[in-house]
Design brief:
Blueprint lengths: L1 H8 L10 H111 L3
C-alpha cells in the first residue's frame, strides 16, 4: 500500500505502473471468467444434448406406440372376422351337437338291446336245455 500511495502521489503517467499483485489479480480474474465461461458452455451443451436425447426417446416411444396401436387394430379386425366365421359355422356346430346327443342316446339303446338280447339268449338256452323248445 505504501508503494501504491507513493505511485499515486507521483501522478506522472510514465511513472504509474501496475503493481505485481494487481497484475496477478487481473490474470486470475481473467482466468476465472474464462473458466466460468467454459463451465457454463459445457453445462449448456450437456443440457442441450440431454434435450436431444429426450427428444429421440420421445420419437422412439411415439413410434412404438403407433406400432402397438396398429397391432391392436389388426387384432380387433381379425377377431371380428373370426366372430363372423364362427357365426356362419354355428348352425353346423349346433347340428353336430344334436347328432352327438342322438348318438349317445342310440348307444344307450344299443347297450340296453344287447343286454336284453343276452337275457333272451340265456332264457332260450335254458328252455332248450329243459326241452321245452
Amino acid at each position: 500500500l505504501k508503494q501504491r500511495r507513493w505511485n499515486m502521489a507521483n501522478s506522472n503517467p510514465e511513472i504509474l505502473q501496475v503493481e505485481p499483485e494487481t497484475n496477478n489479480l487481473l490474470e486470475d480474474t481473467n482466468q476465472l471468467f474464462d473458466n466460468l465461461g467454459k463451465y457454463i458452455h459445457s453445462e449448456l451443451t450437456a443440457t442441450s444434448e440431454e434435450y436431444k436425447l429426450l427428444h429421440q426417446m420421445n420419437v422412439i416411444t411415439r413410434d412404438k406406440y403407433l406400432e402397438m396401436t396398429k397391432m391392436a387394430e389388426d387384432f380387433v379386425s381379425n377377431m371380428k372376422d373370426l366372430e363372423e366365421k364362427y357365426s356362419t359355422f354355428q348352425p353346423y356346430l349346433d347340428k353336430i351337437d344334436e347328432i352327438d346327443v342322438a348318438t349317445r342316446d342310440l348307444e344307450k339303446t344299443i347297450i340296453m338291446l344287447d343286454a336284453y338280447t343276452k337275457k333272451l339268449e340265456e332264457k332260450f338256452k335254458r328252455l332248450k336245455l329243459a326241452g321245452r323248445i
